[in-house]
């Protein structure tokens, strides 16, 4: 027994020494444990705790392998941890409530609702509400449809996904036109009440903005696999006459644990075109992602080309770890966007730098279309299936502040390119 423990400790120490900390942390937060590893842990615990199953089957010191509490099923570690009926209403329920309390506490922090300093002191209120969200605790949901589980532990109603009943058809219009696409979240359910309509979308996990912020920079082959999916979604919308207008990293969410499949979260703020003409007049979008023509033109601009500019900002940000145009005040940010100056770090591959420059072109007519982006050599050679985190990870990392200074010091003058 002692030998096994020593071997496990040595293996763990070796893993800690050789492993990439960033990747290890990612692996741990994903919560994926290999079946063999989980089996080994359970077997080691089983021997150490000496369950009845071990005593009867291996040690032969007892006759009956059945659980000493419920006396019904074989007493394995798995049974004690999560299957015993005898402690379901006490220990398991308490553990369940602790976890729910912790999740509720985290949600309160996320939506800026009142929460205790520590999760273990947090007492979830039946209803909490502010301008961002409403959180219900152990609340029966009343709808005009029959729902299978109508008393969830926690219900979060994000207010921006709740629309007045009168206008929700307008919001849903793009979904009627757009054929399903694997990289665009499906509208899963619509519940219409007398005053409000609730739209529920195919669930996503973490969004790309948070992911990039955590990783600082994403390696090129993983970046290509993710960016390809973003472009596929935009290209599908453009092909069917929908301009997205408010494109940004935050709009893309991960559909799986491995963070390899992306979904466009919803079609909010999108615009349905009447024909082949994609000129728009109203100004829309997130300051960091807005194209120069929207800032300078008084008349109309091409909606699709503006979406492509936003894709360029997204691509730059995920590969470099900061926005191409930055400013503490809107006036200085917009000034930089209008001038179209930005620096591309030289440690990016030539193909990646080329694609960034083909998207962030000051003249909208010179930008690639979404469909053309998919044919660019950077995407054509990399990342046609899933992600691969294994290459070019740690050594590309540049501390954010250091990078900004370095980039400013040797900012390339790209005036000639654009004028
Ligand atoms: Zn039992």
UniProtKB/TrEMBL annotation:
<protein>
    <submittedName>
        <fullName>Tribbles pseudokinase 3</fullName>
    </submittedName>
</protein>
<dbReference type="GO" id="GO:0005524">
    <property type="term" value="F:ATP binding"/>
</dbReference>
<dbReference type="GO" id="GO:0004672">
    <property type="term" value="F:protein kinase activity"/>
</dbReference>
<feature type="domain" description="Protein kinase">
    <location>
        <begin position="113"/>
        <end position="379"/>
    </location>
</feature>
<dbReference type="InterPro" id="IPR011009">
    <property type="entry name" value="Kinase-like_dom_sf"/>
</dbReference>
<dbReference type="InterPro" id="IPR024104">
    <property type="entry name" value="Tribbles/Ser_Thr_kinase_40"/>
</dbReference>
<dbReference type="GO" id="GO:0046627">
    <property type="term" value="P:negative regulation of insulin receptor signaling pathway"/>
</dbReference>
<dbReference type="GO" id="GO:0005634">
    <property type="term" value="C:nucleus"/>
</dbReference>
<dbReference type="GO" id="GO:0043409">
    <property type="term" value="P:negative regulation of MAPK cascade"/>
</dbReference>
<dbReference type="GO" id="GO:0070059">
    <property type="term" value="P:intrinsic apoptotic signaling pathway in response to endoplasmic reticulum stress"/>
</dbReference>
<dbReference type="GO" id="GO:0010827">
    <property type="term" value="P:regulation of D-glucose transmembrane transport"/>
</dbReference>
<dbReference type="GO" id="GO:0032436">
    <property type="term" value="P:positive regulation of proteasomal ubiquitin-dependent protein catabolic process"/>
</dbReference>
<dbReference type="GO" id="GO:0031434">
    <property type="term" value="F:mitogen-activated protein kinase kinase binding"/>
</dbReference>
<dbReference type="GO" id="GO:0045717">
    <property type="term" value="P:negative regulation of fatty acid biosynthetic process"/>
</dbReference>
<dbReference type="GO" id="GO:0005654">
    <property type="term" value="C:nucleoplasm"/>
</dbReference>
<dbReference type="Pfam" id="PF00069">
    <property type="entry name" value="Pkinase"/>
</dbReference>
<dbReference type="GO" id="GO:0030291">
    <property type="term" value="F:protein serine/threonine kinase inhibitor activity"/>
</dbReference>
<dbReference type="GO" id="GO:0003714">
    <property type="term" value="F:transcription corepressor activity"/>
</dbReference>
<dbReference type="GO" id="GO:0031625">
    <property type="term" value="F:ubiquitin protein ligase binding"/>
</dbReference>
<keyword id="KW-0649">Protein kinase inhibitor</keyword>
<dbReference type="GO" id="GO:0000122">
    <property type="term" value="P:negative regulation of transcription by RNA polymerase II"/>
</dbReference>
<dbReference type="GO" id="GO:0032869">
    <property type="term" value="P:cellular response to insulin stimulus"/>
</dbReference>
<dbReference type="InterPro" id="IPR000719">
    <property type="entry name" value="Prot_kinase_dom"/>
</dbReference>
<comment type="similarity">
    <text>Belongs to the protein kinase superfamily. CAMK Ser/Thr protein kinase family. Tribbles subfamily.</text>
</comment>
<dbReference type="GO" id="GO:0045599">
    <property type="term" value="P:negative regulation of fat cell differentiation"/>
</dbReference>
<dbReference type="GO" id="GO:1990757">
    <property type="term" value="F:ubiquitin ligase activator activity"/>
</dbReference>
């Amino acid at each position: 027994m002692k030998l096994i423990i020593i071997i496990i400790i040595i293996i763990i120490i070796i893993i800690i020494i050789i492993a990439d900390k960033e990747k290890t942390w990612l692996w741990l937060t994903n919560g994926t444990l290999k079946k063999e590893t989980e089996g080994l842990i359970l077997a080691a615990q089983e021997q150490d705790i000496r369950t009845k199953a071990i005593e009867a089957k291996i040690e032969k010191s007892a006759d009956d392998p059945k659980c000493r509490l419920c006396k019904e099923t074989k007493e394995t570690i798995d049974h004690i941890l999560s299957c015993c009926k005898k402690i379901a209403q006490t220990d398991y329920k308490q553990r369940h409530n602790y976890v729910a309390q912790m999740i509720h506490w985290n949600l309160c922090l996320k939506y800026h609702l009142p929460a205790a300093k520590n999760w273990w002191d947090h007492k979830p209120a039946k209803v909490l509400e502010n301008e961002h969200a409403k959180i219900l605790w152990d609340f029966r949901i009343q709808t005009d449809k029959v729902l299978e589980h109508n008393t969830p532990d926690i219900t979060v109603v994000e207010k921006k996904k709740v629309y007045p009943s009168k206008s929700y058809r307008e919001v849903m219009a793009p979904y009627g036109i757009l054929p399903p696409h694997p990289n665009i979240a499906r509208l899963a359910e619509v519940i219409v009440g007398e005053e409000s309509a609730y739209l529920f979308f195919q669930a996503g996990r973490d969004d790309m903005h948070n992911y990039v912020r955590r990783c600082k920079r994403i390696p090129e082959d993983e970046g290509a696999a993710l960016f390809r999916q973003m472009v596929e979604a935009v290209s599908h919308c453009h092909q069917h006459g929908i301009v997205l207008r408010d494109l940004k990293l935050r709009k893309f969410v991960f559909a799986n644990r491995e963070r390899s499949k992306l979904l466009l979260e919803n079609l909010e703020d999108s615009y349905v075109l009447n024909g082949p003409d994609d000129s728009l007049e109203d100004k829309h979008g997130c300051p960091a992602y807005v194209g120069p023509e929207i800032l300078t033109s008084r008349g109309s601009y091409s909606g699709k080309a503006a979406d492509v500019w936003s894709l360029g900002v997204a691509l730059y940000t995920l590969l470099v770890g900061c926005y191409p145009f930055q400013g503490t005040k809107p006036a200085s940010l917009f000034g930089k966007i209008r001038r179209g100056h930005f620096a591309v770090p030289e440690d990016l591959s030539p193909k990646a730098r080329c694609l960034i420059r083909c998207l962030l072109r000051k003249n909208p007519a010179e930008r690639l279309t979404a469909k053309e982006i998919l044919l660019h050599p950077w995407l054509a050679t990399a990342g046609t299936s899933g992600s691969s985190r294994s290459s070019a990870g740690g050594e590309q990392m540049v501390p954010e502040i250091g990078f900004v200074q370095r980039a400013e010091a040797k900012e390339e003058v790209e005036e000639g390119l654009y004028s």
